[in-house]
Every structure is written in C-alpha cells, then in structure tokens.
Amino acid sequence: MKTILLTGGAGYIGSHTALEFLEAGFDVVVYDNLCNSSPEALRRVQALTGRELVFVQGDIRDRAALDALFKRHDIDAVVHFAGLKAVGESVQKPLLYYDNNIGGSVILFEAMQAAGVKTIVFSSSATVYGDPASVPIREDFPVGGTTNPYGTSKLFIEKILQDLAIADPDWRVALLRYFNPVGAHASGQIGEDPRGIPNNLMPYITQVAVGRREALSVFGDDYSTPDGTGVRDYIHVVDLAKGHVKAVQKLADGSGVNIWNLGTGQGYSVLDMVKAMEKAVGKPIAYKIAPRRAGDIAQCYADPAKALAELGWRAEKGLEAMCADAWRWQSMNPNGYTA
Fold first, then answer.
1. Angle at CA 145, nearest 5°, toward 140 and 148?
2. Is 150 annotated as catalytic?
C-alpha cells in the first residue's frame, strides 16, 4: 500500500497520524471540512517531515466530491477519522451526530466501494463498550449499552463495516478502539486545538495553565474510584498515530474485520492528571468540583495485549511525556493554531 486517504486528517489525531504515515514512506491525501481543525496543522506536518501531502477540503456527506477525489487520486487505503467527537454535545445534539458520523460514513463507504477501494481503518472508541462490567477491557467484551450518542454512532459504524465485510469478503477492515488520546508531538508544532470550550480534559487543563481559562471543572467526585473522580486510560497521541500505521500494514496481508484496543492498560483519575500537569507546568492548576456530566462512566481502561500480539504495537510514552508534550504545545502556541 502506497497512498493513504485520511478523512478528518487535519484534526488532532489525524494530523499526528498524517505525520507518522509520511515518515513511514506513504503518500498522504487529507480530506477535511475544517469544522474543527486547521490547515495550519497540515502545513506544519509538511515542514516537520520535509514531505508534501495533498489536502482536499470537503465534507464526507458530499458524494460527488468523494467520487471526484477517488478518480483523481489512486488511493490504496482509507483511515477514517472524520466525525464529531464531543460526548456532552452529542447528548444535546443527537441528530447532528447521527447525520454527520453515521450518515457521512455510509456515503464514504459507498464512494469507496464504487472506486474499488476496500481497505479501511476506522477511528472507533472505547465508548462502544458502554459502562463495562469490569476493567481492564478486552476486545471480546460485549459492546452496546452505550451511554451517549457519540458512542452509539461509533458502535453503528462498526456494525456497518462488519456487515459490509460479510457481504463482500474483499473488504479489509480494522476497528481501532481508542481510549483517551492526549499529549502532542514532541516538537511542540502540532497538538490539540479545540474550537471554543474544550470538551476533553487535557486541553482544558493546559488552557487553565496558560491563562486562557479560569479553572477546570471536575465533573463528579463521587464515583466508585480511589479518589471519586473518573478514571480513564490516557494514551499519547503519537503512540496512537503509530498504531494506525501498524494497522494499515497488517491489513495489507490480511482480510476480514480486525478489532484492536489502543490504550496503555493504565487508568488515571482526573485528579491524577491535574497533579501530573501541575508537575509539568511547575505551578498549581485551579479546579472546582462540578456535578457529574451526562453520558460519563466511572472508569474505563484497556487490556492492550491483542494489539501487541497481532500488530507488534504498544504504547511507549508514559504520563510524564504526555503532560510535558501537551504543555510544550500549549505554551509554544497559547492560542493554538491562531496566530
């Protein structure tokens, strides 16, 4: 496989993955509507790698634009990131999430099928497991019982791809179930730059630390966890990005549907993350306890053994690097990609 299409490739995870594919010798085409991303990220990826990529602005719900893209470029595989991803927003705006994430994915898969491109790595999520009966979570755990429309949209897309592979055995599918991506490229040149108020923990903490936000809201301190705050498996975004390269390489020799958790196997609470970031930035981070947030669960962390056994992939960067790299990005780019 030589040319990879990254839908949503200008976003946080997409831009880091574009960089890893370029460094691994692949050619990269990025398709993104820029609703929650910046072309500046792609300019920086090219500067960091010394390689060019192709950027096409467009929406995955635009079939004509997708057909034109597949005609113009000889795509070997697709890595599908494009989608809305805020848990809280999905609870408030379910139709938006179902239209964009599920409807857009169906249109993308139709365009792929028409173009004869049947290799795909899907950016899924640990939210498909719902509120797990136990942790760590293995890939053979039951899915469903999702607690928010974001997770439900990921679950439906997984099912669509599984049904597609049953109907047509030429499809080669990887479902990558992410845990909680954090951190940034060690250069400080690319990182997480959410529009508006961050929905994820780490960018909110770093924006408080840099002075953009007054205090972090910790949603719930009465969960059944060691300190009462939610526990998650935080994974460095560069480790996560490398997992996509491994998945594409594996699909080149495989077939059918493959499912891999991408996590570290270690859970940290919200307050653990606050303390770790305080150490990285060298000063206290203001926070306040707020009511639980709809759609959240107490704890969620991975058993990543299957990815190690089948992909030769494991997370290599620990909590200290996650925090140091996130802070380097934020302190070098206090306003994100906006000058």
1. 120
2. yes
| Res 125: pLDDT | 96
Asked if 202 and 183 touch (Cβ cutoff 8 Å), the reply is: yes
* The two structure tokens encoding residue 38: 């910046």
Degrees (nearest 5) of the Cα angle 237, 173, 141?
A: 75
Encode pLDDT of 96-109 as tens digits.
999 999 999 999 99
Q: 116's torsion region: left (phi>0), alpha (psi -120 to 50) or beta?
A: left
Which H/E stretch holds residue 87? helix 87-92
Between the alpha carbon of residue 171 and those of residues 28, 78, 168, 281, the distances in Å are: 21, 12, 6, 46
Residue in 60, 317, 31 with CA at minimum distance from that of residue 185: 317
HSE-CB for 57 with a 13 A CA cutoff: 8
Residue for token digits 């594919």? 21
Secondary structure percentages of the chain, helix, strand, coil, to 5: 40, 20, 40
Q: Which of 97, 129, 150, 234 is catalytic?
A: 150
- Of the candidates 312, 126, 288, 296, the residue with the CA atom closest to the CA atom of residue 213: 288
CA distances from 247 to 126, 177, 243, 311 (A): 17, 12, 6, 7
* Percentage of the chain exceeding pLDDT 90: 92
